[in-house]
Amino acid sequence: MSSHPTRRAVMAGGAATAAAIGLTGCLQNPDSGSSGSSGAQRYELGTTKGNGTVSILGAFGGQEQTAFLASLEEFQKSSGITIQYTPDQDFTTTIQQRVGSGDAPDIALFPQPGGLFDLAKKDAIVPIDVFLDYDKLNSTLIPGFLDSARMQGRVFGAPMRMACKSLIWYPKEAYTAGGYSEEPATMEDLYGIADQIKQQMGITPWSDAWESDQATGWVGTDWLEEFMLRLYGPEVYDDWIYHRIPFNDPQVVAALDKVGELLKTEGNVLGGTSTILNTAFSEAPLPLFENPARAMLVRQGNFVTGFFPPEVLKNIDTQVGVYPMPTFADGYEGQPILGGGDLAALFTLNDDTVKVMEFLTSDQFGAEWAKAGGWLSPHKTFDQSHYADETTRRIAQIAAEAKVFRYDGSDVMPNAVGGGTFWTGMVEWLQGSKTSQQVCDDIEASWPK
What does the sequence similarity comment in the record state about its family (predicted)? Predict the structure, then answer.
């Protein structure tokens, strides 16, 4: 889960794009680790001058818009380029309509890769290897991020913001007083900590909540995605979310059963399965901060801090602890991170738009947004001193040290699945009305042909 003015005409096709910049043959992103000389010829600055204004369409407004624009002020002064940003809460629909009517923005910021892929299939987006130094960009990003915007060998968007989901939160004072490990190496170690909490404190170790109006169930999809990534690694995970293996593959069913061992075992989660389903997802962390705490562990993304009580937020570094959700002892070797992020994609190719894309997708962008809070850079090389508190720096460090990043799978799957049957299937599974096998069979049957 998450998640315009005078301009040159939209590049309306792969052939048109190649012709416009004097390219021949098929451009191809360099494979990771290659020299970068895979035959892809990049756009040269000076080929097509812009008009001094670049339009950007995105999904975020309010305080996020303010912080975003603040992060662009110095660039606009030094470059002489005026950026006109338009927020749209119905971004997913609006971007499709505008591209379809020949009124695409110069740049769009996609909160999920699904819509990006839809337009890339229509040859509406300029692949990033045409105008960015792919290898240089890839070297500063958390490993695996560009794979999230890859389709048929090309990458069509580059991240300018990251969400980090694979986090375990705990109330620092009560947790450390209990002597529990703040760096569990494996999921088995984490299960051991949960058992200690049960025995020593006499409370359920976990708090979890899935209720989210029409989107109820998305929290459950994250649990399965986390386990798929940790049990089998990124290759099998990719095969699953891109439907190269069926949704009801035995590995998926086994992973869902494994999630059930944690969430459905009596005494593991506060209130049991009915409370999980009937409690707003935003309320999951609240029992951790009661006195005394009624639970000690919550698995949720970095955005969950927005739902912490005000007095906790005011003293977040002393009140809250966080560590990465570990992997299984016999699972993937290394720390994976499940997450999301906004992907910047280019529709209009000229000197001005390229300069804006170079800045937006670099580790130099975002200092002002980082200081304002609520933003993470996807670059492991970003200066972490810009973050407003030690907790955010800790999360950024967790992400920077990850072996691999993977996008939230439901955001990549067709919307009928990722925003439909996957959500409802997880609810039926947690209710106990359907088994892991039955739910996976139903979701597989719902996959668009």
Answer: Belongs to the bacterial solute-binding protein 1 family.
Domain boundaries, the chain: 14-164+338-407, 167-335+409-446
Does the fold of domain 167-335+409-446 match that of domain 14-164+338-407? Answer: yes
pLDDT-flagged residues of the chain (< 70): 1-40
Residue-level pLDDT at 167: 98
Report phi then psi at 240, rounded to 5.
-70, -50
Domain 14-164+338-407 has CATH 3.30.70.600: no
Report pLDDT for 269: 98
